[in-house]
Design a protein that fits this description.
Keywords: Membrane, Transmembrane, Transmembrane helix. This protein is mostly helical and 152 residues long. The chain is built from 6 helices and no strands.
Length: 152
């Protein structure tokens, strides 16, 4: 098993792992995932309620996205890392707007926060990696890159 080779790669791997696990959770235990998102879990579903269908689709998408992120992390695909920073920040805006518009419960802001923190962590990782490369610290691992990036 290969591990990420950069600080940014590690941030993408963490997000990929959590996306994959949330996808598995949604597929195996949908009520738990709904509860984590602050969404109601009604005791029975009425005719025309497609919550289960949507949950299977979004859980499978999260699973697949997790795999994509993990593959990008071990391949150190830096253009993908930069791309994710931008679109995860777009996701923060969209998720926040649906809460403000009263379409989603306030607890859904936790998902927006997770996306935002992840985007900022990846941006910081990219910066640390760029500084490490510019400084010629070839071969330094992610932890030493973080220490060097922090000025320690």
């Amino acid at each position: 098993m290969r591990l990420p080779r950069s600080a940014a790669g590690w941030t993408v791997a963490v997000f990929g792992g959590t996306a994959l696990l949330s996808g598995v959770l949604g597929l195996l235990w949908p009520a738990a995932l709904l509860g984590m998102l602050g969404l109601a879990v009604p005791p029975t579903r009425t005719s025309g309620d497609h919550t289960g269908t949507f949950l299977v689709a979004s859980s499978m998408a999260a699973f697949n996205m997790g795999v994509y992120y993990l593959l990008a992390a071990v391949g150190d695909w830096r253009p993908f890392f930069r791309f994710t920073v931008v679109f995860r920040l777009v996701t923060v805006c969209v998720f926040t707007l649906v809460v403000v518009a009263d379409v989603a419960p306030v607890g859904f802001l936790g998902v927006a926060a997770w996306e935002g923190v992840g985007a900022l962590a990846t941006a910081l990782g990219l910066r640390v990696d760029a500084r490490r490369r510019a400084g010629g610290a070839g071969g330094a691992g992610p932890s030493s890159a973080l220490v060097a990036g922090a000025g320690l």
